[in-house]
Amino acid sequence: MLDGVREAVRKFLKSSADYETAVNAFIKELQKTLIKSDVNVRLVLQLTKKIKERALKEKPPPGASKRDWFIKIVYEELSNLFGGDVEPEVKPKKVPWVVMLVGVQGSGKTTTAGKLARFYKVRGYKVALIAADTYRPGARDQLRQLAERAGVLFYTEDVDDAVQIAKRGVEWAKGKGAEVIIVDTAGRHKNEIDLLNEMENIAKEISPDEVMLVIDAGIGQQAKALAESFHKRTPIGSIVVTKLDGTAKGGGALSAVAVTGATIKFIGTGEKLDELEVFKPKKFVARILGLGDLEGLLERLKEVEESGKLEEISQKIIEKGDLTLEDLYYQIVSMKKMGSLKKLLQMLPGVGLMGGNDLLKQVDDKVLDKWLAIMNSMTIEELRKPNIINRSRMRRIAIGSGTSVKDVEELLKHYNMSKKMIKQLKRKKGMLAKLMKQM
Ligand code: GDP
Ligand code: MG
């Protein structure tokens, strides 16, 4: 359903049109897709207005492309639509807490009932499952088995009246001291009216604290009508989107959210009992937008941020006008996090200016690992005042790090050279600042 959004992201990132044209084209595409997905028009316009405002106002950090930054904005605003950073409250507001599951046949209600039972049991609650689907043959046995596997209380009756089973079941569970009581219902009847009537009657009898709508992620456009028809009869309090493992879709959930005003609480990501996750809006939207692309993009942006940090470290060193082995250590560690030696070469203060490029060209990742090992074998005092490292200390460090005295000497040689460069740099800082401005 929201495949269109993913396609638009791909197009946007590849487009050769200028930034503004590409942004406008993307926003049009986004509006079209969301409206086609039955998302409330006002909601769509609000969303795209906000995206556009931010896109014009915000400047990407140095090193990040405008387009990557724009997609990040889209990602954040879409996430806000689903609740942003706020994770749903899954803790029962009181006990006993009665949950009634509704949804069409095959959406995953019974499976979800079992998963929820396990979820709350693991969190220390006494849980009971009530099987009130008298329409589907075998439905009660299916839930009985799940209850056994989850190790929770179970109740059903071999009668046709689902309303009575639910009513007596909840009473029974309360009597047993259950704290979370989950009622599984039918998803199909002789006809839709009968099904909805039954749901309404069960709700009237048991007054659930929460009606959970279970929808299959693959359901698409029907989600809206479905959610609406249930919502009219049994006001939906929360939503579970199932089978998100099998599809990257799930956009229908957006319509269900919009039409019921309920929030998504859980997602199902497989058939097993433990394959239930508390819904995380950002993760979900990443999925809708095409996880692969987005992960790479967010990774790239993170790298830019990290390199910003590295620049900060380097800047402090220049200002101090001195370098200790400790500084060098942190510089290497943060650079290794970025995973790119080339970046370090470009970023080490003044390397190019001071003719240090050749020296650093010989430095590869293996050498850096060795240096880190050597520095790990030094005492804090040695790292802060490297000039105390004499021959015997060198021998101790070499043994401790599984290297040779020659290796230690090499590191110290590199360190002394860098230190000299920094000292010169400090003196020439005025000149450097001027040079930087020209670049
Ligand atoms: P109900 O008719 O609504 O009670 O649906 P069921 O719980 O019987 O589930 C229907 C089918 O969907 C079963 O084969 C389940 O194993 C499967 N199912 C339920 N939830 C998930 C899920 O999150 N992922 C996958 N892959 N399958 C699921
Ligand atoms: Mg069922």
Description:
This protein has 439 residues and is of the alpha/beta class. It has 3 domains: 3-81, Up-down Bundle (Four Helix Bundle (Hemerythrin (Met), subunit A)); 97-289, Rossmann fold (3-Layer(aba) Sandwich), CATH 3.40.50.300; 293-438, Orthogonal Bundle (434 Repressor (Amino-terminal Domain)). It is 60% helix and 10% strand. An 8-stranded mixed β-sheet has the order 3-2-4-1-5-6-7-8, sandwiched between helices. Helix 4 crosses helix 11 and helix 4 crosses helix 12 (291-320). The two termini are 48 Å apart. The relative contact order is 0.10. Residues 339-359 and 432-439 have low confidence and may be disordered. Residues 103, 105-111, 187, 242-243, 245-246, 268-271, 275 line the site of guanosine-5'-diphosphate.
Unreliably modeled segments: 339-359, 432-439
Report how far apart the termini are: 48 Å
Q: Tally of extended strands? A: 8
> Which ligands appear in the coordinates?
guanosine-5'-diphosphate, magnesium ion
Strand content: 5-15%
**Name of the CATH superfamily of the largest domain:** P-loop containing nucleotide triphosphate hydrolases
The H/E string reads HHHHEHEHEHEHEHEHEEHHHHHHHHHH
